[in-house]
Design a protein that fits this description.
This protein is an alpha+beta fold. It has 10 helices and 10 strands. The protein has helices spanning 2-31, 93-122, 155-159, 178-181, 183-186, 236-273, 286-298, 304-325, 334-354, 368-391; strands at residues 36-52, 55-70, 124-134, 166-170, 173-174, 193-199, 202-208, 211-215, 218-222, 225-232. β1 and β2 form a beta hairpin.
């Protein structure tokens, strides 16, 4: 049941991402005075729609994407006298580029927003300053916790620390980041520490002296406590900084993946048709990502917060990748149309500079063979990924 919910959640998130992509085109097209006649989610048979103003909004039967129909995208489109000035091809080059690039921009915006929501709203897995377990003793020569009968009690046990205690401060310094603040304990072997703790809402002061423990030839201090692991939210500023760092990492990784994509196709062919083992770091299709979402949802070792964090990371990284992929200068992708718009703009500028008449916009239908070749290659890759994900799925270590 949880696996089904994971897949459904992924499908809904994917459709919402498509809708947000198309809304980017719609918003700027309307802002620049272009006429938008249709805004649909899906393709094929129309299931439901309504008209507001001059635009029909609706849902179609095949949930494999969406589209926003802007008047005058093709030079062969017949336009009424009223619609001609509002045609897409009549707009300036900067406006055409903004309309075309808005879809990918919204993917980036959504991806970074989801990452920020994780850091600021949900939290990320981290060691918490709450004691999960108090060890009965500490073996001072190794890191194992096997107690000899004559072994003294651990400093934590001897000082009265208990499971559930939350450390508020160490030697008067407030604990803000347990992962780094715990270094005070590591650096205080044999030196008494004053701990302010919260025990069931009551604040207590406990003095404990970390035992000297030798690890890899280095002496460190240990109290004999195991910390709880949970979700920790960050401040707004820290969340924004971490969002930029992680989002930039996703962006860079996506670019590298696209650059190396052709070299991974032979391996994908072997994995699809010859039974080779799938590489988790190799190519994965939409079905594979949906399987990862299902695996996350059904993992009993993860808390709800951990599952939500992982799911949002999957959707965020997918949006950033799709945003970059869509900017590739290949028809029928938006990046291909942007390349045509730039070429049109250059031809207009050159004609104006040399005093020649303004040239007609580039005829996309003449480039249809290139479009069909690219479409066939993308369709073939998609079908190969689909077959691989179904018959030889990737096993993710989530």
């Amino acid at each position: 049941m949880l696996q089904v919910l994971g897949v459904l959640a992924f499908v809904v998130a994917l459709l919402l991402s498509v809708m947000i992509h198309e809304f980017g085109h719609f918003f700027f097209a309307k802002k620049f005075g272009m006429k938008v006649t249709e805004f649909f989610l899906g393709f094929g048979y129309k299931i439901w729609s309504f008209t507001r103003g001059e635009t029909e909004f609706g849902v179609k039967a095949i949930p494999a994407g969406g589209y926003c129909r802007i008047v005058g995208m093709s030079t062969h489109e017949e336009l009424s006298e009223a619609d001609a000035p509002r045609a897409f091809i009549k707009a300036s080059t900067p406006r055409r580029l903004i309309v075309l690039g808005a879809g990918s921009f919204n993917h980036f915006l959504l991806g970074f927003f989801l990452i920020f929501a994780i850091f600021f709203g949900i939290g990320t897995s981290a060691l918490l300053p709450t004691i999960d377990q108090v060890l009965p003793c500490i073996n001072t020569s190794t890191t194992t916790n096997v107690c000899a009968k004559s072994a003294p009690a651990s400093p934590a046990l001897a000082s009265g620390l208990k499971a559930g205690d939350r450390v508020i401060s160490i030697n008067g310094k407030l604990v803000t980041n347990w992962s780094s603040d715990v270094q005070v304990i590591r650096n205080s072997a044999g030196t008494p520490l004053t701990l302010l703790i919260d025990r069931s809402g009551q604040q207590l002061t406990i003095v404990a002296t970390p035992a000297k423990v030798t690890v890899s030839g280095k002496t460190i201090g240990m109290l004999g406590i195991l910390s709880k692991v949970g979700l920790k939210r960050e401040s707004f500023v820290t969340s924004a900084k971490d969002t930029w760092n992680l989002g930039s990492n996703f962006f860079t990784t996506s670019v590298k993946s696209l650059v190396t994509l052709p070299s991974k196709i032979p391996a994908l062919f072997r994995q699809t048709f010859l039974g080779a083992k799938r590489d988790p770091n190799g190519l994965v299709g939409v079905v594979g990502v949906a399987q990862a979402s299902a695996a996350t949802a059904s993992d009993t070792a993860l808390s709800f917060g951990d599952k939500l964090e992982t799911f949002l990371l999957i959707i965020a990284s997918l949006n950033i990748f799709v945003g970059i992929f869509n900017l590739l200068p290949l028809l029928p992708l938006d990046g291909g149309h942007m390349a045509i718009a730039i070429a049109d703009g250059y031809r207009r500028w050159r004609a104006k500079r040399t005093g020649l008449p303004e040239p007609e916009p580039i005829d996309l239908e003449k480039l249809m063979p290139i479009t069909l070749v690219v479409f066939a290659l993308l369709a073939g890759l998609s079908l190969m990924l689909l077959a691989a994900d179904i018959f030889n799925p990737v096993h993710f270590n989530l």
